[in-house]
Amino acid sequence: MTTTTLSGLIAATYTPLNDGGDVNLSAIPQMVDYLLSQGVSGLYVCGSTGEGMSLTSDERRAVASAYVEATAKHIPVIVQVGHNSVHEACQLAEHAQAIGADVISATCPSYFKVADVAMLVETMAEVAGGAPDLPFYYYHIPALTGSAIDMGEFLLKGGERIPNLAGLKYTDTKLFEFQHCLELQDGRFDVVWGCDEMLLGALATGARAGIGSTYNIAAPLYRRIIEAFNQGDIERARHWQSRSIEMIRAIGRYPFHPAMKAILEMRGLSVGGCRLPQGRLSMAETKSLRADLEAIGFNELQAANLPLAE
């Protein structure tokens, strides 16, 4: 297995859809070019942001292939393969390895809940075994999976059972648990932060990388947080984190992912809306969102100062 340590800002990418709600693979190269221009250091494909759970397995394979091809090894591509069917998850993992993805990741099944650490380890061992040559990161997102199992205990037991377990995508707000996981066995595991509005706190706790939705639209803002933190200018880092919180609160007045896709459309990217049950913003909501973003100086958060397209 190739080892890896993720770093910097990893965009949890969106899956472009056309007006009929079908996957629009032709839009992915433009999306990749845009994200590279914004300074992201990796892509996380078919996760929560990418509506992986709303796509068919064939669609997920097609999307993963398109992102790997478009990225052309410039930055790592992490393919999220979690599924309520563990058998399907294994097949998605096998496909990710076959197409040249750099990393796989997976949520646990969420319809029938995973009740304890032993069952989570066995389940993830089977999924990770589908791509034994790739690093595997368990995707811990208890708000959506309903599984709030202690991650430190999972890493310790999983490290003994899962040969390619590299770490976690940690999407929770418990900085104390995050720090504990980072420090286990002298930093054996790579634990990546997944809560955009708390990036600064995670950096202070030891984070080396973050995976997030809003890195799609405001990577320059988060780069400023990291730069200020690395320079020891905590006041400036706190200022930019505050601007991130303000932005996320503005977007959060609307259905979040449809609003995010609307912003990408304003940037000239053909990503469409979301699959049901999320849907897309109405014209009135999009107009209101644009006004809310302009009110908080959203364009100023972009290093390139890109205008919002009409």
From TrEMBL:
Q: Catalytic positions? A: 139 (proton donor/acceptor), 169 (schiff-base intermediate with substrate)
What GO molecular functions are on record for this protein?
N-acetylneuraminate lyase activity
Q: Which EC number(s) does the record attach to this protein? A: 4.1.3.3
Q: Name one GO cellular component term.
A: cytoplasm
Provide the protein's localization: Cytoplasm
Q: Where does pyruvate bind?
A: 49, 211
- Family membership, please give it: Belongs to the DapA family.
Name of the protein this chain belongs to: N-acetylneuraminate lyase
Organism ancestry: Bacteria, Pseudomonadati, Planctomycetota, Planctomycetia, Pirellulales
